[in-house]
Design brief:
Strand order of the largest sheet: 1-2
Number of helices: 6
Shape: elongated
Radius of gyration: 63 Å
Largest sheet: 2 strands, antiparallel
Order of helices and strands: HHHEEHHH
Length: about 240
């Protein structure tokens, strides 16, 4: 009769002949992880040490008192001792030298009597002729015939061509199609028709606008002498002279 052991429940253990070593890739991964951990802890330790050093330096700088400014001694030049100079003794002056020399009496010539001057008659006041005031010539006044080229056109060039034929910002500006650059432009008029009626001041639209102050727009009115010049030119028939 055979007896079996109660403690043996399986087959007998077998001894392993080979041990499984980690592969090179596993060793490399583990080495990199170790280096990363060591570098992280080193960086944290280095940063903590620098922060502690900065705090200590700031505390020492705040605790140290600032040195008082030292003033350099100023060298004052020493003055030499005063030198004694003896006073000059006055030289004695004799009585003869001090007395003034005698003066000889001067003979004054006798003054001869002069005849009194003959009285001159008082000047008679002759009234000066009063100056006659000459009237100042006005710009293109009513005297004589008004010239378009010499009197009227210069007024248009100074006061009107800014909006009627002038060039602003590189472009020609002509409002309502009216140009006032030449005699032909003035007689041609605007889009609405002629603005000058030769010999008829009442029906000349241009005269009406400048008298009312509508032209030039947003500018000071023409002077009265300038208005009279243009009016006289239209009244004379608006000649091309």
């Amino acid at each position: 009769m055979s007896h079996k052991s109660l403690w043996k429940t399986g087959s007998a253990p077998q001894r392993r002949s080979k041990v499984a070593w980690p592969s090179p890739a596993q060793l490399l991964n583990q080495t990199l992880i170790i280096i990363l951990i060591i570098g992280l802890w080193s960086a944290l330790l280095f940063g903590f040490l620098r922060w502690t050093e900065a705090q200590q330096t700031a505390a020492l700088a705040a605790a140290e008192p600032s040195p008082a400014p030292t003033t350099a001694p100023t060298n004052t030049p020493t003055q030499p001792p005063p030198t004694f100079t003896p006073a000059a003794t006055p030289t004695p002056v004799s009585a003869e030298a001090s007395s003034p020399p005698p003066t000889d009496p001067v003979e004054t010539p006798a003054v001869e009597p002069t005849e009194p001057p003959t009285p001159t008659p008082p000047p008679t006041d002759t009234p000066a002729p009063a100056p006659t005031e000459e009237p100042a010539p006005e710009d293109g006044g009513d005297t004589g015939q008004v010239s378009f080229q010499k009197d009227v056109l210069p007024i248009f060039e100074r006061r009107c061509i800014k909006c009627h034929g002038g060039i602003n910002d590189g472009e020609e500006r002509v409002e309502e199609g009216l140009k006032l650059l030449t005699y032909e432009d003035v007689l041609k008029g605007s889009y609405n028709g002629p603005v000058i009626e030769p010999g008829d001041v009442e029906n000349s639209f241009l005269i009406e606008q400048i008298v009312k102050g509508e032209m030039p727009k947003k500018e000071p009115r023409l002077l009265p002498a300038q208005i009279r010049t243009i009016t006289a030119w239209v009244e004379a028939g608006a000649p091309d002279n």
